[in-house]
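Example record for the data management plan.
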Amino acid sequence: SEIQLAKDLGVSRGSVREAYRTLAALGILNIENGKRPRLQAVRAEGLAQVFGYALTIAQVNQKHVIDTRRGIEVHGAQQAALHISNAQKARLQSCLEEMRASLDDNDTRRRIVADIGIHNTLAEASGNPLNVLLLGALRTPIEQSMAIDVGTRRSAAELARIVDAHALIVERVCDGDAIGAGAAMTAHFDLSLASMPRPASAGSAVVADASWVM
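Corresponding structural encoding:
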């Protein structure tokens, strides 16, 4: 409680209350009237705010975000190939079918949701909970930027290449081919980074091509 913690630390109750409010705003504590504060499960939102802020003030750009994701996801795909469950394999196949179907109805949102579903499932299948946490936090600012960039349009051939890249990753992971899964994910990110224009300065100049690595 605020009273007990203030007593233990030798500080004012107001200081404890302000600290609790800050921790609640960061998603660390759950505070309800009449109840003691409780720790929340670790979530990506707090980290996403940090990454989003860094992008907003141009301390980092989206290529930096993608480079970091690449390191996590290549290794994560290799681990997923070794540890994936049958239920996770089925989920990957379902997401892949959704991505292909989105090419027929030209439903961008449907493709993005399915795309994210594949990457989330791979992160879960890797067996490392930090992969899920970090990828969720790193993906959020890119997805928000994509929503702002409403003028972006891709050809049918480009969209098909995106789906094919994911299909190869799913195939290798479901086959239990760790080396092949890592190579397929590497190729996916190589294609993504090659498609991105060189920004004149750090900021939003690369937003239009962020959709390659959702």
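Summary line stored alongside the record: The beta strands are 29-30, 38-39.
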